[in-house]
């Protein structure tokens, strides 16, 4: 078969995936498939005809075999389904974001998601804290300054000499200046901390370097409450996060010198 209709192929893959998976293990006769999959012979015959019709199966001497196209189609379909599962898992963490928020699906491919629940609203914060506790360095952009976040950043930078390059929204900078001025002054006096300002951001985005390797982190908020943490240590996710942080950092401005001075 030369070319095919993507909609037809998707329908065939969805309905006949089990047969194609079984045949990917090796050629089999229809009777063997009937026994293995526990379905009727008519269902197996129809499945083979449909898979053969889109070029994913060949039948030689009564034995059905997966073609190269069939093997590649099955692999692509499995990745697609896995990516949809990842998106579904992260949906509740991302629902507070505007539809035009800059985001790449690579961040969700194989991600870990922690979302606040009625029974445990602290889980996302605990997850974020655990990631920061492992940090060797942190670079990113932040939209919140919760007390526990300020505490862990302050302690890791001042006590543990962890380096941090942050871009914060203007309201976060104002909160740091008014509520945490002594800590901010001490942080700015170190060589391992820098802070810039930007008007607004849709979410917090970090790349945390750890002894085991970097991890990209998205933090989402609703009414100043941390509702979700999405983390991913895959290279594509980390590369995207670094690139997005670069874009936001390029649009940021340094703090006025007086902002970080003790009054």
UniProtKB/TrEMBL annotation:
Residues 14-85 form the HVO-A0261-like N-terminal domain. Transmembrane segments: none annotated. InterPro entries: FilR1_middle_dom (IPR013561), HVO_A0261-like_N (IPR057527), WH-like_DNA-bd_sf (IPR036388), WH_DNA-bd_sf (IPR036390). It holds the Pfam family FilR1_middle. It comes from the Archaea. Residues 123-249 form the Methanogenesis regulatory protein FilR1 middle domain. This is ArsR family transcriptional regulator. It comes from Haloferax litoreum.
């Amino acid at each position: 078969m030369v070319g095919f209709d993507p909609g037809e192929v998707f329908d065939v893959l969805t309905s006949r995936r089990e047969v194609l998976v079984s045949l990917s293990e090796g050629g089999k006769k229809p009777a063997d498939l009937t026994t293995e999959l526990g379905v009727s012979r008519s269902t197996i015959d129809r499945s083979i005809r449909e898979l053969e019709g889109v070029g994913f199966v060949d039948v030689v001497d009564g034995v059905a075999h997966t073609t190269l196209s069939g093997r590649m189609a099955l692999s692509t379909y499995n990745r697609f389904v896995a990516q949809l599962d990842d998106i579904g898992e992260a949906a509740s963490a991302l629902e507070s974001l505007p539809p035009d928020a800059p985001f790449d699906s690579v961040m969700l491919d194989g991600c870990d998601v922690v979302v606040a629940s009625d029974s445990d609203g602290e889980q996302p914060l605990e997850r974020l804290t655990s990631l920061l506790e492992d940090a060797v360095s942190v670079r990113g952009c932040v939209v919140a300054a919760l007390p526990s976040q300020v505490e862990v950043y302050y302690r890791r930078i001042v006590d543990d000499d962890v380096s941090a390059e942050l871009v914060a929204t203007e309201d976060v900078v104002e909160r740091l200046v008014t509520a945490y001025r002594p800590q901010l002054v001490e942080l700015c006096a170190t060589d391992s901390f820098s802070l810039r300002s930007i008007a607004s951001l849709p979410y917090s985005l970090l790349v945390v370097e750890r002894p085991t390797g970097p991890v990209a982190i998205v933090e989402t908020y609703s009414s100043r409450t941390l509702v979700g943490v999405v983390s991913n240590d895959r290279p594509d996710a980390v590369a995207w996060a670094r690139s997005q942080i670069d874009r936001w950092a390029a649009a940021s401005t340094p703090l006025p010198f007086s902002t970080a001075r003790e009054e």
